[in-house]
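pls design
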């Protein structure tokens, strides 16, 4: 095989994978990506695509394997890869690993609001209320009109015994997400918050 054949084979496998995804054939797309990675096991885009497809087809262990390999190949380069690893670790129930991956993503890309949110949720699941608060606050700074982090912050405040802060957050949510504010008020049993 000459040296020009390898890139052509990789390009063909990549094209086939994209086509099979487009045609709704994820198993065939995975087979094409397997061929691509057999030629070049360090093909970062192919690893990322295969991890995503493995997750989409219900193979969480395979998705995690690829995601871990991807960040091992480029530990300082790609915040999105670290976020994706955190998401998959959380899905697998490895909450401490998820928190570590989300934290790495926030270091690499401080403006990645989803990583801050993931970090906050992971810390909540670990029972680290006070450690969750700054991550969730950072998420609200980056995405001020997304109710999810606000909702979690209100829950942290209520659970920490800071009813005044929980009321303040519910009142804030009332201004742009009244349905979420109403739900939160009912769940936290906050009389009159944001009314």
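designed seq:
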């Amino acid at each position: 095989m000459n040296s020009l054949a390898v890139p052509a084979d990789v390009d063909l496998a990549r094209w086939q994978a994209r086509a099979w995804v487009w045609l709704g054939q994820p198993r065939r797309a995975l087979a094409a990506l397997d061929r691509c990675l057999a030629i070049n096991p360090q093909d970062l885009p192919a690893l990322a695509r295969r991890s995503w497809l493995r997750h989409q087809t219900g193979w969480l262990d395979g998705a995690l394997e690829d995601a871990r390999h991807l960040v091992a190949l480029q530990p300082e380069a790609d915040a999105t890869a670290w976020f994706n690893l955190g998401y998959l670790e959380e899905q697998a129930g490895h909450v401490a690993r998820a928190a570590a991956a989300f934290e790495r993503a926030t270091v690499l890309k401080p403006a990645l609001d989803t990583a801050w949110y993931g970090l906050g949720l992971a810390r909540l699941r670990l029972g680290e209320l006070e450690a969750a608060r700054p991550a969730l606050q950072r998420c609200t700074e980056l995405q001020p009109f997304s109710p999810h982090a606000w909702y979690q912050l209100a829950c942290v405040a209520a659970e920490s015994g800071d009813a005044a802060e929980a009321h303040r957050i519910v009142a804030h949510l009332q201004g742009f997400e009244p349905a979420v504010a109403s739900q939160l008020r009912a769940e936290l049993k906050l009389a009159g918050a944001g009314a």
